[in-house]
Structure formats: C-alpha cells, structure tokens
Write the structure tokens for this entry.
Amino acid sequence: MNAKSVIPVGTQRAVTRRETNPFSLLQQEIDRLFEGVTRNLPGLAATTMPSMDISETDKVIEITAELPGLEKKDVELNVADNLLTIRGEKKNEREEKNKDYHLVERSYGSFSRLVELPSGVKVEDISAEIANGVLKVTVQKPAPKQSKKIEFKTAA
C-alpha cells in the first residue's frame, strides 16, 4: 500500500543531488509555480485535493474535509492497517441552449486522502456525516494502555 502524508507538500521536497543544469532548474521552477496555481484554482483544487482539518481531544479525533458539490453517494471511506482513506469523485455537466448557441460543459475529477490513525482504533467506533459539502469523520480514540510494574519473586 502506498501511503501518503496528510500534510500537503510539494513534490520537490526529497533530499536529492543538487541540479546544476539551467534548463532543469527552469523546469523545476515552472512545475513548482503550476503546482501552486492549481492548488488555488476553485474548480480544479477542490477535485484534486480537498482541504482538511484534523483536530484531537482526549477522547476523539475529528477530521473535517471540504467537499463542495459532493454528496454521500460520491464519497467512500475505508479503514485498513490504521489508515483512513477518503476517496471521492465529482462529475459536473452543464448544458445551456439558446437560439444562437448550444453549450455543453463537463468536468470530472477524483481525489484520495489518507489519514494515519492511532493503533488500537475500533473500526465500528468511527462515524461519518456529510452535509452541505462538508464531511465530518469522528474517530473514538482507544483507551490508553495500562502499564504495571512487575515485582521479582525471590527464589526459595
């Protein structure tokens, strides 16, 4: 399974050999600029990587994701190996007919986000709701593990 970090970072963050070719440096800079632009475009960014907030209390972890235009049927949640996968697909189609023109626009996009959960989380204790394009997932945290000091017995 290919797990990705929930912290959004660029693709050029790995430690690699420093590039000295000016054309490669220019290409990297152009890629970085386009990555920043597409992240801020309203229609494109929402379908490729939804904004998420993760908050934690003593008892629960709350994950909130902005999924404008999506409904329950468009979103899938899965838990496997302490990874919560939020996956969805948005399909838009708009048709406009006028006596002078006929316009049809279609857009499609899908996304997938992974959130690592603490070990010991019970899948049956996870709840989710979606309303007005906002997904809220509540994960009950497992009880803290008890530790006990074990005393040595003296041999007879």
About this structure: Confidence is low (pLDDT under 50) at residues 4-17. The CA atoms of residues 120 and 146 lie 13 Å apart.
